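Narrative of activities, Objective 1.

The group set out to show that a structural description can be obtained from nothing but a protein's sequence at a throughput compatible with the screening campaign. Below is one input-output pair from the validation batch, recorded exactly as produced.
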Amino acid sequence: MTPIALAAGALVLTFGAALVGMAIRPALPDHHVGDASKDTVMRAVGLVVTLTAIVLGFMVGSAKGYYDDVRDKLNRIAADAIVLDSNLGRFGPDSREARELLRQSMGSAVRMLWPEHAMTMSAPAADRPLDGLERVQDVIRVLPAHDEAQRSLRARALESSAEMAKEGWLLLELAQTRIQAPLLAILVLWLVSIFLAFGLLAPRNGTVIIALLMSALAASGAIFLILEMYDPLGGLMQIPPATLEASLERIGR
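Output recorded for this entry:
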């Protein structure tokens, strides 16, 4: 399910729980809604509210950190690609094959990470990005180095390509990370319990209903943000491919 659908489901469940609480309140015996009962219920709900606030804040912070980490690794890969191409360019015509392979690898990365993004390339990019980088490294190792300066350039080029491969593997590992479904289910269950208690204790009037609706919207909005940031390469908060495309345009020039 999409983040919007899951957030909408959380909104329906939480606000629906408040309405259910309001609906069943008149059927409860008076001593169930008396001051002593209200005080006990509010203390219990206060504990759940505190736990929910802590977990929700932790999840938002964790999702933001994950989102920033993916964006940072994409920026590093793009920067390393530009540095690598610059070093290879100093070898002259001998580095043409390596630079073309690097260009194809970056194009494959864009297509793999953003499959719905239309991009025109002058050459096909059939290999997986990391496979392409391994081929780039193989070509760099056999580049002729006629003096100490070229040997130093070749060493820096190998270092840049190795760093790109490392960041690429880390990015692939990060891309497999998703929010744990049991954690999300427990969070929604807590929210439903809270809003059910609010509905049981709140008076039935328009102001209270609107306040509960806005609170439910805020809670479901937080869930939406968490889910969106755990999918940084898709959805409404997608990290654009502009960074990798910018480096792609500079490679080989």
